[in-house]
Amino acid sequence: MAGPPEGRVRVLALRWVHLLQGGALLMPFFLLVNVGIGVVRPGSARLLNGALGPQFLAFGLCLPLVAAAGLLPVVRALESAAARTLCGLPGGALAQGPADSWAARRRCAGWFTLHVGLGGLLSGASLAVPPMALVLLAHPLVPALHSDRWAWPWAHAGSALWTAPVAGLALLAALAATVHGAGALLARCAPPLLGPTPADRLAAAERRAADLAARNRLARDLHDSVGHALSAVALQAAAARRVLDSDPQFVRTALAAIEETGRSTVAELDGMLGVLRDGESRPAPGPGLATGLESVIARSRATGTRIDLRVDASLGPLAGLDAQVSAESFRVVQEGLSNALRHAPGAAVSVRLERQRAPEGEMLAVTVENAARTVPGPRPAGGRGLAGISERAALLGGTAWAEDAGGVWRLAARLPLAAEAGAGAGAGAGHQRKDGPGNGTERESAP
């Protein structure tokens, strides 16, 4: 063990306690074996007060029972906590939960047997060696100990008396060395026997992927909802300020739209914060076409922007669409309107929802078009919106793209009308985005 002497002494003391804990865990099994032998052969199993041979026999008979107890799932959690605290092992090296698979249980049974077996032997030595060493240390100074009833392997008289303290110190050193070796063995064996199995690592990776997917989903929803709301509110306020004296009716309409935008955005934020608070791994779908399309169009129109909305009659009632497809389609429309309001204020916007037949099946085509950028200067930093739309489409098995075609900025998405099983549960990161027609850009560019 490296480190300062006081650190090494502390580690030795903690590992000694860990071994004594193993000895304490052995006692119920030891007593059970004694009772069992007494039942099978009455009067022949006075092992606790007998010779060492019968006691070691009882000890050996305990170990199969210890191994069987180590198969209990909860044993791994308890032993991992004890080993992490008393053996000074890093938390990541040991599994933290119960053993769910039989492979993990068998490894835990092997560890439990090793811990309890070594602990039982070292606990017995810790009880027997210190008193013996004290007797040897005091032997030259206490005449009563010079009696012949003390059977030492050397003479009691003369200078040989002073070899007893040396033997006592040697016994204590041997005990400490044995404890050190046993503690080091346990510390070395703990990671392979109590560490996570491949199944544990896979489950942990799946939990991390689910958490990442939830965070990505929340990030996309925050960008889409809050970003659109702030853009709309800013443009509505600017438009109202320009006609404050000449068109009071428009100002009232803009203020009402700002109020409605703030109220709906706060409601969405409450839902997202509820997901964070409750620790859900998969947020519920946000607003859909049936519940949010009209309001987002009305808020955008309140900025003075002319918006042409066309919904294919063959789609049927929007409320009948798959909830996930409807929610993601709504985000496509919302992102397209946000881009138009931010980068091409005043330009007319066309929103189309159509049913299309494709080799993959029936698709919902969402297209948002407007004149290309009308605000001079470079595009502001950002670009997360269209990247998020591409991720949303890919998770449903669809495609999304943006292009500047002949002075018309187009954001388009093709989503399967029936969402794929498990859509939205993947990690939202590291997938392959599919290019659409046109230049197939995958980043948010200015209209």
Automatic annotation (TrEMBL):
Write out the catalysed reaction.
Answer: ATP + protein L-histidine = ADP + protein N-phospho-L-histidine
Q: Which SUPFAM superfamilies match?
A: ATPase domain of HSP90 chaperone/DNA topoisomerase II/histidine kinase
Q: From what superkingdom does this record's organism come?
A: Bacteria
Q: Name one GO molecular function term.
A: phosphorelay sensor kinase activity
| Residue ranges, annotated region (Disordered) | 423-447
Which intervals carry biased composition (Basic and acidic residues)? 432-447
Q: Which UniProt keywords are listed?
A: ATP-binding, Kinase, Membrane, Nucleotide-binding, Phosphoprotein, Transferase, Transmembrane, Transmembrane helix, Two-component regulatory system
Q: Name one GO cellular component term.
A: membrane
Which Pfam families does this chain map to? Answer: HisKA_3
Keyword Repeat annotated: no
Please list every transmembrane segment annotated in the UniProt record, as residue ranges.
12-36, 56-75, 114-142, 162-187
- Which InterPro entries does the entry mention? HATPase_C_sf, Sensor_HK_TwoCompSys, Sig_transdc_His_kin_sub3_dim/P
Report the EC code(s) recorded for this entry: 2.7.13.3
Q: Locate the Signal transduction histidine kinase subgroup 3 dimerisation and phosphoacceptor domain: which residues?
A: 215-279
PANTHER family documented for this protein: NITRATE/NITRITE SENSOR PROTEIN NARX-RELATED, NITRATE_NITRITE SENSOR PROTEIN NARQ
| Protein name (database record) | histidine kinase
* Native species: Streptomyces qinglanensis
